Amino acid sequence: MCNFKLLLLVTLSWCSSFALAFAQTPPESLDLRGLNLTPDQRSQLQDIRREDQQSAAPIRDGLNTQLNQLRDLYTSDAPDEQVRSQYDRMQVYRQRLERARFDNLMHIRGVLTLEQRAQLRSQFGQRRRTNFSFARP
Q1: Are 104 and 29 in contact (CB under 8 A)?
Q2: Which of 37, 82, 103, 129 has its CB 3.0 to 4.6 Å from that of 78, i.e. a possible disulfide?
């Protein structure tokens, strides 16, 4: 039983770390520098980024709150059903944050020309191949 609790605590810690890292990874991590953006596109992307930061902040705060509550419940003598219920509430915030990030990427995509999108796809393909090669022993 002690090993199970340790495993669950480690899993919760990993999940919360992943969620926060994902939540804090801004879409500006996209390398848009080589896309030859026009001044108008740059302005639009700055507006999108600003709007995203404003709309995602309360969701990130809510996720942090839910994660903290989950940790508190898990380390207490709370009934399993209460811990599971809190986990479900945390997942709702994680899903909202992922959706907000996706919506932001779609807004960014809408600003780019077809040629710029093709360049961006190429970058994603290179990253995918590079990340995959590091994942292999």
Answers
A1: no
A2: 82
